[in-house]
Amino acid sequence: MKKTATRLADGRELLYYDSRDDAVRDAVDRRPLGATVTASEIRRDPLLGDSVAIASHRQERTYHPPADQCPLCPSRDGRLTEIPAADYEVVVFENRFPSLAGDSGRCEVVCFTSDHDVSFADLDPGRAALVLDAWTDRTAELAALPAVEQVFCFENRGEEIGVTLAHPHGQIYAYPFVTPRTERMLASAAAHAARTGGRNLFDDTVAREYADGRRIVLDSDHWTAFVPYAAHWPYEVHLYPRRRVPDLLALDAAARTEFPQVYLELLKRFDRIFGPGRPQTPYVSAWHQAPFRHPERTEFALHLELFTIRRSPGKLKFLAGSESGMNVFINDVPPEAAARRLREAASA
User: Fold this and answer.
1) Do the bridges between strand 90-94 and strand 310-312 make them parallel or antiparallel, or are there none, so unpaired?
2) What is the DSSP-derived secondary structure letter of residue 271?
3) Where are the alpha helices (DSSP H) in 122-250?
4) DSSP states of 296-310
5) Residue numbers annotated as active site
6) What is the pTM of this model?
7) Which residues neighbour 195 within 8 Å (Cβ) at sequence distance 6 or greater?
């Protein structure tokens, strides 16, 4: 992998990731951009103890532009975009409309390909591997920032999820705190260790799924994918490396090599679960990584969570009163049935 760093016209950082060592990335951003103005603020909720980002400047962000005005496509034919080059493989740049900025963290955009009309599932394994390299590199770089406690790499796909740019891309959030979801997992892990004489919760969870077998979706030499016993979403898969590691940086070469085939297969299955001829399945794909300076960091297990809000053709799972008001999920699709359907959707 070759990484080339440059700056956009307003001073934001942009990084090209290329599979070829001889790639030349010297295009200059010629847009007449003013300085980026952000108003991100972190406020603590005294009742729940969690943090909320207040980011009023995001009201001005680009919203569902037509394909010929996409800001994530390359700069071609006289049209200047966020990526100055006429073509690219993988690009990461600072978000112009970040939820987190300055002392409140950092937000980056990850463009998986210059092709506007594909999705991650359409990438070849080499490109998927390059994206993994970019996620890993950004995790390492952002971990070095004094204000950052945790890095979250994720992709939202589909208008139903709330995506406002159709180009295949994801995001990276560098939080100045440990997220509430991670805090709860770490607390559960600590309680489990105390209750069981030091056993690891994540290891025992994966072992339980193996022992049951009904919810296993995909099993390979270095990765395991399953629908969790208490899945929150209609179709939800958790993907774990077989060797427990705290974050992407700790993945060994064998797991990194096998990841593209496993992940692309899962994404293809998600697009098949509702039958042929159906629209692409909207989803969230989220990497859970250990906080960098947490005392129980080594007890955490890196894993990817992939889920959709679509529960059946033409029907979505909305977060209604119980979910939104009390954080008690009600799932209409039994996890065993979801796992069975995902196994049936395997590639030939």
Assistant:
1) unpaired
2) T
3) 125-143, 180-196, 201-212
4) TGGG---EEEEEESE
5) 169
6) 0.96
7) none
Query: Band of the pLDDT at 348, cuts 50, 70, 90?
Result: low
Task: Give the tens place of pLDDT for each residue, 196-228.
Answer: 999 999 999 999 999 999 999 999 999 999 999
- Read off the tokens for 113: 């390909």
Closest CA to 108 of 39, 169, 42: 169
- Alpha-carbon distance 169 to 154, whole Å? 9
Contact between residue 47 and residue 68 where contact means Cβ atoms under 8 Å apart: no
Over the stretch 90-143, which tens digit does the pLDDT of each residue have?
999 999 999 999 889 999 999 999 999 999 999 999 999 999 999 999 999 999
Burial class of 65 by CB neighbour count within 10 A (0 to 12, 13 to 18, 19+): middle
Residue with tokens 């001073």: 11
How crowded is the C-beta side of 155, counted as CA atoms within 13 Å? 24
Report the alpha-carbon distance of residue 66 to residue 338 in Å, rounded: 35
The arithmetic mean of pLDDT across residues 250-273, rounded, is: 98
The tokens for 120 are: 């991650």
Distance CA 170, CA 348 (A): 28
Q: Which two tokens stand for residue 8?
A: 């956009």
- Whether the Cβ atoms of residue 107 and residue 94 lie closer than 8 Å to each other: yes
> Structure tokens of 323?
């979910």
